[in-house]
Amino acid sequence: MKKIEAIIKPFKLDDVREALSDVGITGMTVSEVKGFGRQKGHTEIYRGAEYMVDFLPKVKLEIVIADEQVDACVNTIIETAQTGKIGDGKIFIYDVERVIRIRTAEENEEAI
């Protein structure tokens, strides 16, 4: 099993969710996060004063899937979330040792 963490632009969330559903990935956790990389934030003006916004709003998707679904999941996220501009995001892939569904005590693939 693998855990996919994808950091994407917020306006791409609905498109990515629908595209993942189309390839059979139905469960995910979504968090609103802030961060920056090469994009480095931007300058805004508030009440006449200019200030630097260091952290930009992003969305983090967390998806735990079977090993055979990884390529389809990653490719779907890339194709759907990509705008070609700086700040499109990143995808991280981790090994998952064990999953337990609390309600039924099912484990691993049955618990996903």
Protein described:
With 112 residues, the chain is α+β, with helices and mostly antiparallel strands. It has a single domain (2-110), classed as Alpha-Beta Plaits (2-Layer Sandwich), CATH 3.30.70.120. Helices cover 20% and strands 37% of the residues. The chain is built from two helices and six strands, in the order βαββββαβ. It has helices at residues 13-22, 70-81, and strands spanning 2-8, 29-35, 42-46, 49-53, 56-65, 89-95. The strands form two sheets. Strands 2-5-1-6 form a four-stranded antiparallel β-sheet, covered by helices on one side. The chain has a two-stranded antiparallel sheet with strand order 3-4. β3 and β4 (49-53) form a beta hairpin. α1 (13-22) runs antiparallel to α2. The longest helix is centred in the C-terminal third of the chain and has 12 residues, at 70-81. The radius of gyration is 17 Å and the shape is elongated.
Give the helices and strands, then pairings.
Blueprint: E1 2-8, H1 13-22, E2 29-35, E3 42-46, E4 49-53, E5 56-65, H2 70-81, E6 89-95
Antiparallel strand pairs: 1-5, 1-6, 2-5, 3-4
Strand content: 35-45%
By CATH, the architecture is named 2-Layer Sandwich
Please provide the ordered H/E string of secondary-structure elements.
Answer: EHEEEEHE
CATH structural class: Alpha Beta
Helix content percent band? 10-25%
- Shape annotation: elongated
Helix/strand structural class: alpha+beta
CATH topology: Alpha-Beta Plaits
Low-pLDDT ranges: none
Mean pLDDT: 89
Radius of gyration: 17 Å
Instruction: Compute the number of helices.
Output: 2
Family: Belongs to the P(II) protein family.
Subunit structure: Homotrimer.
GO molecular function, one term: ATP binding
GO biological process, one term: regulation of nitrogen utilization
